[in-house]
Design brief:
It contains 4 helices and 17 strands. By secondary structure, the protein is mainly beta. It is a multi-pass membrane protein.
């Protein structure tokens, strides 16, 4: 009888622990047609490529209440290519076999102090760009096409990252990669972001690639209601330097965006035209045109002797 009572108490304690934990399955399904005039390309059905709005993926995230205001969490995320069902690397949007949870694999500890995370995840530089960029940092973003190297890639492995609490719209985020994980030297990635009402402003400084020099950019957006305006000053390491500017207008339920990104040193301009039509709260259809300037290699995978044009028509579902 005594053993039975002990067993029941253990089961009850386990149930209480599980009640304080949660695991969520989430993801994105994005597929569409892509056509470019880059050498050797043709019309294709694609998922997770440049002319898709986003990269298809699935992931698991969970939290456990540790008590005293503390929570432990985790996030694992893998890329899925809907055209053939493969799970492949997200790096550079190329279909190479790679680490299964290439998009995210990290743990967190959070509380009133903010959040500390350890592992591979989106870096502060990309969060900075997404704070003002008009397409939501879509795969076909003109800014990412032109100055993607200035973000030191979208993700960083072996990263120790701190995110502050939201202080009346202001958030500080700092990522650090130790010298032992970075090869030649430690790297840092600092993001300062403010978003309150219609205004969003964000600044980033990083040397995340571990290369000489550093990357800086400052961007802002303002929503006037039916029209949203955004712009940024961008100064990556090396010779590149320039700006981005664009606007989004609502026509009924359709969102129309025009966004330009210019490298003033290379005399090179990329621009994107995008239309999005909501089918529900979680699903939308989109059409996009990206022109990759002819002065330097870009997102569409060619070293242009002429402007490279990409067209995309697809559908995206978030779950």
């Amino acid at each position: 009888m005594k053993k039975t009572l002990i067993a029941l108490a253990a089961v009850a304690a386990t149930g209480a622990a599980f009640a304080q934990s949660s695991v969520t399955l989430y993801g994105v399904a994005d597929i569409g047609l892509q056509d470019t005039n880059a050498p050797g390309t043709k019309v294709q059905l694609n998922s997770s490529k440049t002319m898709n709005n986003g990269s298809s993926r699935w992931g698991l995230r969970g939290t456990e209440d540790l008590g005293g205001g503390l929570k432990a969490g985790f996030n694992f995320e893998a890329q899925v290519w809907l055209d053939d069902g493969a799970v492949k690397e997200s790096t550079a949007l190329k279909p190479k076999q790679g680490n299964y949870f290439d998009r995210a694999a990290y743990m967190t500890l959070s509380g009133g102090f903010g959040e500390l995370s350890l592992g591979r995840r989106l870096n502060p530089a990309l969060y900075t760009a997404a704070a003002w960029e008009l397409t939501g940092a879509a795969n076909y973003s003109a800014g990412l096409s032109q100055f993607g190297a200035g973000l030191a890639g979208a993700r960083t492995s072996d990263m120790i990252m701190y995110t502050s609490p939201n202080m009346n719209g202001f958030v500080v985020q700092f990522g650090h990669r130790l010298k032992g994980d970075n090869g030649t030297k430690a790297s840092n990635d600092l993001s300062l972001r403010y978003a309150q009402g219609p205004l969003s402003v964000a600044f980033n400084y990083n040397n995340n690639a571990g290369n000489p020099g550093n990357n800086k950019h400052l961007g802002a957006s303002y929503d006037f209601g039916g029209f949203k305006l955004a712009g940024a000053w961008i100064d990556p390491a090396g010779a590149a330097k320039g700006f981005a500017i664009g606007g989004t207008v609502k026509v009924g339920t359709v969102s129309l965006t025009a966004d330009f990104a210019r490298d003033t040193n290379a005399d090179d301009t990329d621009f994107v035209l995008e239309a999005k039509y909501p089918l529900s709260k979680r699903t939308f259809a989109y059409a996009a045109y990206l022109q990759d300037g002819k002065k330097k290699p870009g997102a569409l995978g060619a070293t242009p002797a002429k402007n490279i044009n990409g067209f995309g028509l697809g559908i995206r579902h978030n779950f």
